Amino acid sequence: MDDGPTQPPGLRSMPAIFRERIMSISSTLRRASLALVCLPALCMVGTASAQTRFHMHAGSGPRGTAVGGGYTTASGGTITHQGAHYARGANGASYTGHNRFTRNANGSASSSHTFNGTTAAGGSFGSSGAYSRSASGSVTGSSQTTASGPRGSYDASTQTANGVTTHATTATNAATGITYNGQTTYTKGQGITHSGSCTNASGATVSCGQ
């Protein structure tokens, strides 16, 4: 369905399987789904000073099912967008996600996201984060990403404040037991620095090329 100011058909017009998918996902997406249910009313009460545009898409086939939706509201120079998505493959893999973005009339902005899922091989992954930009252009925020499965695990975090962005990573190879720990830092006006090392299952330092 294309974005538009007209009232959307709503969740009740969707096949039962899609309604069940929406209600069975994570608590974050459930809250987003509740917002989707309320969207028809929001679209009806839009005025010249506050307008809401809605979109939704859904599909199902041999490879799986996917459903998603979102809305964008503009009021008083502030634009806010929220979206939510869910997908499940025929092989058992799944994904749920939610995102939000706000841009204010003074140039400041903020964004946030969260998503998680599982793989057909029995692994899992997830990420969450939030960032903001002041009217003067200063950016602050953080995000975290994790993943694990039969081949190993991955953990990463990013922090941004006062012109300095630091990204830290820990990754373990399940087959070798070797763990990599690294950190990359960007400082505005100074450039990038990086450091990293590897240890084996006993904690001894080893070559990362092993």
Description of the molecule:
Residues 132-160 are annotated as: Disordered. Residues 132-149 have a biased composition (Low complexity). The radius of gyration is 21 Å and the shape is flat. The protein contains 2 helices and 12 strands; from the N terminus they run H-H-E-E-E-E-E-E-E-E-E-E-E-E. It has helices at residues 16-24, 27-44, and strands at residues 50-61, 64-75, 78-89, 94-103, 109-118, 124-133, 139-149, 152-161, 164-173, 179-187, 191-199, 205-206. It has 2 domains: 1-133, no CATH class; 151-210. The termini are far apart. By secondary structure, the protein is mainly beta. The model is unreliable at 1-48 (pLDDT under 50). 13% of the residues lie in helices and 56% in strands. A 12-stranded antiparallel β-sheet has the order 1-2-3-4-5-6-7-8-9-10-11-12, covered by helices on one side.
Short descriptors:
210 residues, 13% helix, twelve-stranded antiparallel sheet, 2 helices
Reconstruct the topology from this structure:
Blueprint: H1 16-24, H2 27-44, E1 50-61, E2 64-75, E3 78-89, E4 94-103, E5 109-118, E6 124-133, E7 139-149, E8 152-161, E9 164-173, E10 179-187, E11 191-199, E12 205-206
Antiparallel strand pairs: 1-2, 2-3, 3-4, 4-5, 5-6, 6-7, 7-8, 8-9, 9-10, 10-11, 11-12
